[in-house]
Amino acid sequence: MIDRFKHWYYLYRQYIPSGLLYHRHHFAVRRLPRDDGAAARACREACLRRILRIACTHVPYYRATVRLKPTELANEPPFALLRAFPYLTKADVMAHHRDFLHERLDPRLLNYVTTGGSTGEGIGLWRSKRLADIEKGFLLSEWGQFGFSFHRSTYLRIGADARRPAHEPPCRRFGNMLLLSPYHIALRHREAIVAALNRVRPRFVHAYPSGAAALADLLASGDLTFPVRAVFLVSEPAARPQLAAIARLFHCPVSISYGQSERVNLAFARYELGELSPYRFDPMYGETENLVQPDGRAEIVGTSLWNDVMPLIRYRTDDFGHVDEHGICHAIDGRAQEFLIDRHGNRVPGLSVMPDPGSWAFVRLYQIRQSEPGALRLAVVGKHGSLTAEQKAHLLNEQQRRLVGLFDVMLEEVPDIPLAPNGKRKLIDTAARELLTPQC
């Protein structure tokens, strides 16, 4: 019933005035100055000062750890005040989870989301509708240049929210989105995928790079009878061969975004006519710093200028790349794009096999391990000691339900999940798997 309501909402929201759909700050961020002038600097300072004052006044964690007087918060340069805040890690946030929430907000009235990202280390985040609408506003500052609208444009979506069990069709219409399951991008579904695309005729593509590239490998450009204006790639890094394949299929610009579920930085790169631009971090979205490690790598650190619900200040992203004074970054390191191989020999994007949100209440670390095609082991570290039988059953049953027909799934409780050589934990571990050429 809820899915049916959402379908009709997404289908007919194009007829609802934008002012009724989005918070007023959604429109405000789209009008922000985009140059490096005095107006932009003053706006950034005002936004940062507001976040720092809220953090020191209404967020218990900062009130206990940061010693700044009200007069300093009101009068000192905000970018200098920022240096008084400690660096944060994901482990810090989860160890003092509730202490990062604005004390005057009722969590029952907020949206709570959980994610393990690319590391398999869970984090829970409270968000408001206002923050979600602000996020869309910043995305539209880039994607809107191509004529894209979240509520009016018809677009193809390939991601975790589009996944379906193996026995179901690969595509389904959900309002103004055509959802294509990343599990189904294989030769046996080719005809159904082409038919759905040509029937719906999406003008935009919103996808994981691995999903869009798999589709580009499956189809020929002549299979599509409609033009696509732009492709938006999210959540994973994109390799040049993938970008070239995606551009050959869709014959349009490709926008690559960098961000996190914690929403402390946002950057975009663009691939067009065979050329890949560097990433440019949006200075109006957040303050970006580099924390140089002993080995010389520059970790990306971010502070949102807008998150007054659960402020994350000087948050260490665990991603690496030198960001210059103009917000330019030529390469972002540390994120991995991993595939799993199902029992049919097809490559499945690793990020589409994620634990369900409820699992993070009792799971601290989570890793998907594969040593042979068609089989997965879920390695899990409990948050509060050993898992109960009910918790183990929940984890196993949830993934078996999603992955039926694709993988045999086993659960393995472990004391810890070691760091990879790059200092990060990996959500997907395929080190024990032979290098196989997938067969479609």
UniProtKB/TrEMBL annotation:
InterPro entries linked to this entry: ANL_N_sf (IPR042099), CapK_Type1_Caps_Biosynth (IPR053158)
Keyword Repeat tagged: no
Keywords: Ligase
Record GO terms (molecular function): ligase activity
Protein name per the record: Phenylacetate-CoA ligase
Species for this entry: Pseudoduganella flava
